[in-house]
Design goal:
Oligomer: single chain
Number of helices: 16
Strand order of the largest sheet: 9-10-8-7-6-5-4-1-13
Largest sheet: 9 strands, mixed
Radius of gyration: 21 Å
CATH architecture of the largest domain: Alpha-Beta Horseshoe
């Protein structure tokens, strides 16, 4: 990566797991309005199947780098009531989406899903699947903490159809682990990886983060050296998002503790080089996969999809988020659940969908969303077909002309293609398509840096 371009384009920007991005959603979403829109779309696309995301927020300790919605506790008596509520929320959705819905994808995120006892997770999944059909090409996955994922967790979920597991590792350096308060040893990661393979999981992912406090090229080399030896199927190699105004836990360290500018760029380049030398292919943004993994095959065949769960190999327009703070998407509308456990439990127990905000997409939103999704997944998009253009797109050649001069995109009057050098700047490229961002420039910091 050219350092001059890094300095030029490293600005705050969205990660584009949705469009419009959450800060630009318009107004509160009434439960009845959301339920009606979801019902219409679920019936229209019933044959396509639906994705379920379940947010399990509990963690026994706070990882100070984390940007997720979490609840810290060592009291495991919270497990049962929370799963009761998730299943009750799902029953409310079942009444609105029709008989025997086709389940195409389930993902358990957090928090720490492996905070929950295997028996509770089994009760959750059986409850979700009761009375449903399961797609032949279904994809079930979960996130596990290497320090508390047991063989029983892995076997229980495998027996229920799970074949993907993602382990949050971030960095193996003891000094980095201490400042971010995230601890797992190489031995623990090696054990859970070995168990996963022995049981039969077909895709193992490691989450790694660069730009963490106290991180150096030596710590990246150490971490990636272990990764090269264990060779998981996929890697998510993320830039640390420093947003202490949103996540107070990040105030444990300051900007002075973070590698920035040229130092941070070198961490990424070193990590990417080590991954590519081990046979990993770059997928979309921030992701790498071996050629044998389904994520690589999905990108190669043009089937890569991106939603609030990140990159997936299955495309379904209906994604229902269950649990506190979860976001749902029915392609024409978004809805987000309340953000505190107490409010979530109260609303569900009262028989109300726990939605507190959302957004109904207009025609322009839907078209621009498709172009941004094309760029994030396929690194190209075009608007010369009927139904693929809106007036905003007339600006794109001019908006991206400087990026074209810098060798980051190839432009025609009705198309954009990201060059290999432009991959690292795909968020910046997508920002040119973000009409809502430009019409309402943020007055305060909303996003992490793009590179």
């Amino acid at each position: 990566m050219d350092h001059r371009l890094y300095v030029k384009y490293n600005v705050p920007g969205p990660r584009y797991t949705s469009y419009p991005t959450v800060p630009y959603w318009e107004g509160a979403m009434e439960q009845d309005q959301w339920a009606e829109e979801l019902s219409l779309q679920a019936h229209a696309h019933a044959a396509e199947g639906i994705s379920l995301y379940v947010h399990l927020p509990y963690c026994e300790s706070l990882c100070t780098y984390c940007g997720c919605n979490t609840r810290i506790t060592v009291d495991h008596r919270v497990e049962g009531p929370y799963i009761d509520a998730v299943l009750q929320e799902w029953s409310m959705y079942r009444k609105r989406i029709g008989d025997r819905p086709l389940i195409k994808e389930i993902h358990l995120g957090g928090g720490t899903p492996t905070f929950f006892d295997p028996a509770q997770l089994r009760r959750l999944i059986l409850g979700l699947l009761d009375g449903c059909a399961i797609a032949d090409d279904h994809e079930f996955g979960f996130e596990g903490h290497p320090a508390n994922t047991t063989r029983e967790h892995l076997q229980t979920l495998y027996d229920l159809g799970f074949r993907r597991v993602s382990y949050g590792i971030q960095d193996f350096d003891p000094k980095v682990q201490d400042i971010i308060h995230r601890f797992q040893s190489v031995e623990q990661v090696e054990a859970v990886t070995s168990w996963s393979r022995e049981i039969g999981y077909t895709s193992i992912n490691y989450d790694l983060v660069y730009g963490l406090p106290y991180q150096t090229e030596d710590s990246i080399r150490q971490t990636l050296g272990v990764v090269q030896r264990l060779l998981p199927d996929r890697i998510a190699f993320y830039s640390y998002a420093h947003v202490p105004w949103l996540k107070p836990g990040q105030r444990r360290f300051t900007e002075a503790d973070l590698p920035e500018g040229e130092a941070k760029r070198r961490l990424y380049e070193l990590g990417r080089s080590m991954l590519e030398s081990s046979g990993y292919e770059e997928i979309g943004m921030d992701h790498f996969a071996l050629r044998s993994d389904a994520l690589f095959q999905a990108e190669k065949n043009g089937r890569l999809h991106r939603n609030f769960m990140g990159y997936t190999t299955t495309t379904s327009r209906i994604m229902i988020g269950l649990g506190v703070s979860s976001i749902s998407d029915c392609w024409t509308a978004f809805a987000q659940n309340v953000k505190t456990v107490e409010a979530y439990l109260e609303m569900v127990r009262a028989g109300r969908l726990p939605v507190f905000r959302g957004h109904l997409l207009n025609d322009e939103d839907r078209i621009l969303r498709r172009h941004i999704l094309n760029l994030m997944c396929n690194m190209r998009t075009a608007w010369n077909e009927p139904g693929s253009r809106v007036d905003w797109l007339d600006r794109i050649p001019e908006e991206l002309s400087e990026m074209e001069q810098d060798g980051l995109v190839r432009l025609t009057p009705a198309s954009v293609e990201v060059t290999p050098a432009g991959r690292a700047f795909v968020r910046n490229i997508c920002m040119a398509f973000d009409a809502r961002l430009w019409r309402k420039q943020p007055e305060t910091s909303l996003f992490s840096m793009t590179v």
